[in-house]
Amino acid sequence: MGDAAGEIIASPSVPDSSKDSVGPNVPDEYFRTSRPDIVGPDVPDAPFPIKLSGPVQHGFGRGSKDLGCPTANLPDDSLPPMIDAAKTGVYYGYAQVTPSQGTSSSLSDQDVCVLPMVMSFGWNPFYKNERMTAEIHIMHEFKTDFYGYDMKALVLGYIRPELHYISREALIEDIEFDKKVALKSMARPEYEKYMSDPFFTV
Ligand SMILES: Cc1cc2nc3c(=O)[nH]c(=O)nc-3n(C[C@H](O)[C@H](O)[C@H](O)COP(=O)(O)O)c2cc1C
User: In which residue ranges is the amino acid composition biased (Low complexity) (predicted)?
Assistant: First the structure.
């Protein structure tokens, strides 16, 4: 990290969510260059775990095209558990995609496993979105799209606030670091055990 440091700009114009924070007190350059690679306590604590579920929606498609990081969007009516309990930001946890009951599926056995994910929850200040979204990047290479399929997500921890970037490269660099943070943070036993939580389909 570091080359793109200083490319973040303060984001006072981000619309307010119920408990929004874009970290106005965090010196941006310091924040980007000194991020820890493990975040959160050793045992998830309140408000986690937060359970989300719904059919995967089409986003704007910029995640895969612009950022090399495909995201699966949850529908608006699945967001209240996050809105009620958490501020906007980047989170980690587990997700599982399953075909809707009674439909045939092009997903492989690996695709339907419980998999680690990172989630962007908020307004995507870089793209100046006008509505709040929950976009989940599952850390797994899917061979096919899975729009319309059911997705469950168990959110286990908070990584960082949403930030406003003036360069796509800096956003990509930080998302890559978010993925490392998520994997390392969830390698702790009290997080790993959520992979077999009854919330997910066996
Ligand atoms: C782990 C992760 C972190 C992200 N962090 C930010 C961020 O700090 N600021 C921001 O504006 N967007 C952030 N994004 C959101 C991307 O801008 C978003 O995924 C992109 O808008 C693609 O959306 P689309 O698929 O709906 O087009 C993040 C996305 C992910 C997966």
Answer: 11-22
